[in-house]
């Protein structure tokens, strides 16, 4: 596999996220200091400079691109992209469209990122809808779930395309030579599920993918397969339930440790193991997730991203570009077009 050697240029949305611009700027500085990238912070220049004043000396590979407008988290994606062309999200897309950056990263309005990137950069040949792919830990290693929110009303061909793109990403970035693909369903049998899901099953079964059949929700964390395909509605619900459950388990464990003196003593012994487990389950270690299918490298971060997760998202975007994921997806365009006509 050919790997590019150039310095990767990345645009980072300085105004996106619940903790912007402080956490974003902090993450940008960490990334610029530790990664071989050229980083452009996009946003309101005066606010970004104020945050940057906390860091001395500033990395020479970090600069600012002024964007006067901000798309807020609760705004309508399509309307905000149309009405705010000078927003940090839209300006990032413009930089990528003009070839001034190789990747864009944001912890802001996810819908706006999907809309702006899809319209501004276009889609790869053979791809009809982009999909958000999240990599999560399981008992057998990392598992990718796609889609988790970009497309809540898909066609069967869209989910087939997600399977192809997810497999390519898993091979190029995670390093699995022949990743297994499963279709999220209410049962393992081929006859289970709606007409829509059964149509997706047929497309995946007839493809060149390493398709293992239907998988259930419990199989996600069991690591039964490498890539799990689903629609954006179900995928987003599954992801949010997982996040909520992880938070609840941590809190319940803390409460139990405080109940008795013996529990507290036992907690001190278990603390190192607990911290290792917590680190494995922390979304911040992955930073951002790719929006697969757009004609560019677009990474979406959690709205509550910390500086560390922003730094890791920049690193993930650089890895995506370095490993030429989109080139590999384009190489599969013939099979993608065939499924789209099905």
Walk me through the structure.
This protein is of the alpha/beta class and 342 residues long. The chain folds into two domains: 1-127 and 293-323, 3-Layer(aba) Sandwich (Isopropylmalate Dehydrogenase); 133-284, 3-Layer(aba) Sandwich (Isopropylmalate Dehydrogenase), CATH 3.40.718.10. The chain is 48% helix and 16% strand. It has 13 helices and eleven strands.
Main sheet makeup = 11 strands, mixed
| Fraction of residues in helix | 40-55%
Architecture of the largest domain in CATH?
Answer: 3-Layer(aba) Sandwich
Question: What is the number of domains?
Answer: 2
Strand order of the largest sheet: 3-2-1-4-11-10-5-6-9-7-8
Keywords:
Isopropylmalate Dehydrogenase; 11-stranded mixed sheet; 13 helices; 342 residues; alpha/beta; 11 strands; 16% strand; 2 domains
How would you summarize this macromolecular structure in one to three sentences?
It contains 13 helices and eleven strands. It is α/β, with parallel strands linked by helices and 342 residues long.
Layout of secondary structure:
Elements: E1 8-13, H1 22-34, E2 37-43, H2 45-52, E3 62-66, H3 77-83, H4 88-97, E4 103-106, H5 110-121, E5 131-136, E6 143-146, H6 156-174, E7 180-184, H7 195-205, E8 210-215, H8 219-222, E9 227-229, H9 232-259, H10 261-281, E10 288-292, E11 297-301, H11 307-322, H12 325-331, H13 333-340
Parallel strand pairs: 1-2, 1-4, 2-3, 4-11, 6-9, 7-8, 7-9
Antiparallel strand pairs: 5-6, 5-10, 10-11
